[in-house]
Design brief:
2 helices, alpha+beta, 111 residues, four-stranded antiparallel sheet
Length: 111
């Protein structure tokens, strides 16, 4: 029986000290982990370099990517184990998504 793929949204924060080339390779490693297990990357939003809310492994800044992808739910645990071995990846979070956002819009915070 074939398992249905679900739609997910993943937020990935990479070490800000990486060069542009190293950052691209680190992101390719993340997306290859998804596609290598039968998933499909639909959209990647480059959010740029941002300040972290708190220090993570000595870093105060990180490079953010938001990735929309489909994957079988049973394959996510394998992908997460691979993420934990990636030294360039400071943090990641995966949530189920209803739709792929073509443009990201943020509300202004009250001052």
């Amino acid at each position: 029986m074939k398992e249905n793929n679900q739609q997910y949204e993943g937020m990935y924060i990479f070490n800000a000290t990486l060069s542009e080339d190293a950052r691209k390779k680190a992101l390719e490693k993340v997306t290859a982990g998804i596609t290598g297990r039968g998933g499909e990357v639909q959209k990647v939003h480059d959010q740029g370099r941002r300040k972290l809310a708190y220090e993570i492994r000595g870093s105060r800044e990180g490079y953010y990517y938001l990735v929309y992808f489909t994957s079988a739910t049973s394959k996510l645990a394998e992908v997460w184990k691979e993420y934990q071995l990636n030294e360039d990846l400071l943090r990641f979070m995966t949530v189920r998504a209803d739709e792929v956002k073509e443009n990201l819009e943020f509300k202004k915070l009250p001052e």
